[in-house]
Amino acid sequence: MISIPKPIIKSILFGLLIISYSCSKDPENIVEIEEADTNDCFKIGDEFQGGIVFYIDATNEHGLIAATEDQSSGAIWGCPETTDPIANQRDIGFGNANTNAIVNNCAEVNTSAKICSELILNGYDDWFLPTVHELELLYHNRNLVGGFSSTNYSSSSEGKNNDGIYKDVISIDFGLNPVHADRQQPIDKTTPLAVRAIRKF
What is the DSSP string of 102-165? Predict the structure, then answer.
């Protein structure tokens, strides 16, 4: 029978205790993460990869990060004359695709999508304009992210106007309380709206 010295046993047990403590799901015990690609020891509201985490998916390895300040207080969506849909995806995970579609199809300078697409912030250059559902998540975690104004923010999701054509952008009014039914508001694409860029990890 192999005999293990007591000092070695104590060292092993202490190491296991430290690992258990560091990756505990208790928010008070979560360690600070800097530039790790994936880690289950972060939470919504943490500083991570250039911004603030505001969404974590079911894998607990991927999610969305928001910039900590607005990129514009008033930028248009673009393509005001276009009546066919360009970027009408609304679900989580489609903000980047919507943004690329807007950039590739709208010739206007300084649209909300182009501002996000061309952004280089805190060492990252893969920012995009959120879909309306991504923006909705950002709204619900706005106090953790910070820096928002009580105004309408642009999503990358377009919508139909009263004539049934794609002339509107779906915005979210960050000045309304969380239970307000009219928070999502279709607004003409030529209306300047606030812009907050996000990125995925």
Answer: HHHH---TT-HHHHHHT--BTTB---BPPPHHHHHHHHHTHHHH----SSEEEEEEEE--TTSS
Cα dihedral across residues 69, 75, 77, 79: positive or negative: negative
Domain that holds residue 188: 46-200
39 within a domain of the structure (yes/no): no
3-state secondary structure of 168: strand
Sign of the Cα pseudo-torsion (74, 77, 82, 84, in order): negative
pLDDT one-digit tens code per residue, 132-165: 999 999 999 999 999 999 999 999 999 998 888 8
Measured between alpha carbons, how far is residue 183 from residues 119, 133, 178 in Å? 27, 12, 8
Residue 73 lies in a domain: yes
118: left (phi over 0), alpha (psi -120 to 50) or beta: alpha
Take residue 77 and report the two structure tokens written for it: 């969506």
Enumerate the β-bridge partners of residue 158.
169
Number of folded domains in the chain?
Answer: 1
Cα 13 from chain centre? 40
Tens of pLDDT, residues 112-139: 999 999 999 999 999 999 999 999 999 9
Is residue 166 within 8 A of residue 160, CB to CB? The reply is yes
Residue 13, in any domain of the structure: no
